[in-house]
Every structure is written in C-alpha cells, then in structure tokens.
User: What shape does this take?
Amino acid sequence: MSAERVPRGIDPTRAHPARRYDYWLGGKDNFAADRESAEILASGFPTIRLAALENRKFLQRAVRHLTAEVGIRQFLDVGAGLPSAGNVHEIAQGIAPESRVVYVDNDPIVLVHARALLNSSPQGATAYVDADLREPEKILDSPELSRTLDLSRPTALILVATMHFITEAEDAHGLLNRLRETLAPGSYIALTHATLDYLSPERRAEVVEADEKSGVRFQMRSREEFARFFEGLDLVEPGITSIVDWRPDVPPEQRPSVEDVSMLGAVARVP
Ligand SMILES: C[S@@+](CC[C@H](N)C(=O)[O-])C[C@H]1O[C@@H](n2cnc3c(N)ncnc32)[C@H](O)[C@@H]1O
Assistant: This one.
C-alpha cells in the first residue's frame, strides 16, 4: 500500500501487529514501517513467515473440527486480523451455512477492511466489533455481539495468535477469564501462542533481541504459562502441542519442525 493511499485514522509510521502479520501472509495491507519491523524480527527468527502460515492452518483446522465434529455454530474471534484466505466464517459456513461469527480487533486497519469479513452466507451471520481485548466489557456489551450471538448457547471463543500481544502487567489471564465466564457450558476456547520453549538458549537470545528491536510489544509464554489459560477447562485431544502437531492433516514428514514454528496451540471445552 503506498503512502498516498493511507486510509483515514491509520498511522503508517509505526508497525502494527495486524499489518505485519498481513505482510508475512503475503497480503498487501501493510506499510514500510510494518515491513521493516517484520524483517527485523525475521533477522532473529528467519522462519516467522512459515510460523504465520502454520498458525493460519491451525485456525482453519480448529474451526473445521469445532464445526464439523463438535457441532459449534457460534464463534467469537478476538484478534481476527485482516481478512485473509479462509476466514473463520468461510470455514464454518462452508460446513454449516447457518454459522454465526463475530470478529473483534482493535486495529483501525482491520476496521477499514472489515467488509470482507461480513460477506456471510444468507443462512448465517457475521459482525465486526472494533474493540480492544483489554476492555472485555466493550466487546461483551456491543450491540453487534448481542445481535449476532446468543451466549447462552455454546460458542467458540477464538484467540489465535492474539494473547501474546497482552502482557502479564495487563492481566492476560484475567482478561481471558472475563470472556470465558460469559460462555455457556459446552462452549470452547481455541488459542495459539508464540513460545521460546522449543529453541536453544542461543536461539532464544536472538529472537528476544530481534523482538525487542522490532517495535511491536510482544509477550512470549512457556508451555506452563500457556497452560494456565486452560485451567478448569477440558482440553480436547491431543491437548497442548506445537500447532503443527494439533490434529494435523498431513503426515509428520510433511510438517515443519516445532522449532521453526515455535507456537503452542490447544482447544478446550468449557464444562
Ligand atoms: C497475529 S494477528 C492474528 C490474526 C488471526 N487471529 C489469525 O490467527 O490469522 C493478531 C491480531 O490480534 C490483534 N490484536 C492485538 N492486540 C489486540 C487487542 N488488545 N485487542 C484486540 N485485538 C488485538 C491485532 O490487531 C492482529 O490483528
């Protein structure tokens, strides 16, 4: 996107997570500052693009599982990101056209492009809420949410590659719990998260340095810290794994290494 085509309300001079992720996925809705930040991070973690693509594949496998095998028909996708191939409603409605999806993101660029997330099947519904996960009440009280989802019925809360933008100081676990306590029994939570767990101490140091230089605030979490998001929930098989090993649809020899992807994923049921 060229500087002269900057939409109103967008700051192109500072890297933003949604636009940087769009760059890694091969999208066009990013600016020089996003690409620069992306390349700085890639200098410490060269397989970041692969990690982004694998994350997207996890999202799609999780939504497919929840729709086709569990029977979920409502989705709340927080940190939805810019529209990309295989958005949640496209996957879910491809299986069950009556599926209803609410997308949430706090990045103004996602709001600019949200129309592409709203092309629901006639039998289902989609909505977009411009809100910040750090203000869960704004999400929960939004008219778009109450018009689209009935939270007294099972709903899948999706936070895929989102929680690592929330620090401990911002009470990441408390924020997730606030959303989770509104979910009906039989609801699900699907999460992925960046981790340093799979890397050697030398490689960890390189990633941390590049991450700090990249200008986007980020919080890596260990498997133990990630597991705390699921306390009191029933993990779906195979539990907490590298995203590449979570209900994979390709044999092991075709999957990237857990080091190159360095993301944890899991899906759990609210009892
Ligand atoms: C790496 S992208 C992931 C997009 C999508 N979930 C996926 O996995 O393909 C992270 C998204 O989370 C959003 N995000 C980060 N912090 C957020 C916050 N506090 N509230 C809402 N969205 C947030 C970013 O704007 C970005 O679109």
